[in-house]
Amino acid sequence: MKWLAKVEVTLKQAVLDPQGVAVESSLTTMGYENVKRVRVGKYLELVLEAADRDKASAQVEEMSRRLLSNPVIEDFSYSIQEAGV
Predict the structure, then answer these.
(1) pTM for the structure as a whole
(2) Strand stretches in the chain, DSSP E
């Protein structure tokens, strides 16, 4: 079966986010004074083949820990659904 995994990688709350600060500052300059905090992260979509959801989930978990995120400074979350491709 083919599976679609959607992975979100974000900086841990304790880690400073200079890119988020820059975006927040730009938004404020553009007139969006109601924006009080911006955190920037990564979004990835993976299509993979696996026998079942559990095997796909285990593989996405491993890929996220080993390559897609830096576990020292980032957290990740993901969802998996059957791919329609």
Answers:
(1) 0.88
(2) 2-11, 41-49, 74-82
Torsion of CA 25, 31, 33, 39, to 10 degrees: -40
Under the banding of pLDDT at 50, 70 and 90, the label for residue 45 is very high
Q: Whose CA is closest to 56, among 29, 35, 82, 24?
A: 82
- CATH number of 2-82, picked from 2.60.120.290, 3.30.1280.10, 3.60.40.10, 3.30.70.920: 3.30.1280.10
Residue at token pair 């996220």: 64
Instruction: Look up tokens 């989930």; give the residue.
Output: 57
